Amino acid sequence: MVTGTVYGVVLNDREERNRLGGQFAEAPYKAPPVAPVVYIKPRGCVTGSGSEVFIGDEPEVEAAPTLALLIGRDAAKVAAARALDHVAGICAAIDVTVPHDSYYRPVVPLRCRDAFLPLGAVAAFTPAFASAEIVTTVDGAVAHRWSPDRLVRDMATLIADLSSFMTLSAGDLLLVGLPHDAPRIRPGQTVTVEVAGLAPVTAHVRQGDAR
Prior knowledge:
Elements: E1 6-10, H1 14-20, E2 37-41, E3 46-48, E4 51-54, E5 61-71, H2 80-83, E6 87-97, H3 108-111, E7 117-119, E8 123-124, E9 134-138, E10 141-146, H4 155-163, E11 173-175, E12 184-185, E13 190-195, E14 201-206
Parallel strand pairs: 1-11, 3-7, 4-14
Antiparallel strand pairs: 1-2, 5-6, 5-11, 5-12, 6-8, 9-10, 9-13, 13-14
């Protein structure tokens, strides 16, 4: 059960890092990131599978399929070899955001809106999920496939690196990374993320504001 803070990381997709390449040497970044680039999804973002996601007057949103790790016991300055011992569960997740190009400043209004994080049911964690295929369908048709094999920092390394400068507490949820080529979803469409061994998570995208 998620009782703590929901954390996510950007720029943890190897394909995205390779695609951006020399842009990190230019303003405003000046250098590639050397630590995980962390953001928070406030509690109001969290919703269950099958929820309606209202996107105001936006023409589309990015629905990033990912895996979320439920922290079972506090992790502070843990080694990568023992990092996964701190994970109690895992679930499929859809990290919804309004498309944007810059990572330089926090984009809270674009990433953190009500119901912008639909979650599937939490299952017991096994290391096999570290290479599981994550399949996204839009209106029943396959729109995207990817795997945690693409992560710059795998699950264990990500927990270890984060715990070097912050504590992941029991009850926190950690989104392991976002694919740079996540599908764009328009109002009226339904997106579903499926991972073998996990309950699927579905969201129905709607125009306007929640009533």
